[in-house]
Amino acid sequence: MAGNNYLTYSASQLAMDESFQQWVLHPDLKNVFWENWVAQYPEKTELVDQARSLVLGIRFRNYALAADEKEELWERIWSGMADEPTQEQQTATPTRKWMPLARYAAAVLAGIILMAGWHYYNTGKQRPVVVSAHTRPGETKQLQLPDSSVVILNANSKLLYTVNNKAEREVWLDGEAFFNVKHTSANQPFTVHTYDNLDVKVLGTRFNVNSLGKEIVVVLETGRIMLNIDNKAAALYLKPGEMIRYNKGDGSFAKTNVDPSQYTAWKSGKLVMEDFSLTDAAVFMKQVFGKTLIISDSQLLNYKVSGSMPIIYDPDTMMTQLSKVFRTRFNQRGDEIWIHKK
Question: What residue intervals traverse the membrane (predicted)?
Answer without folding.
Answer: 101-121
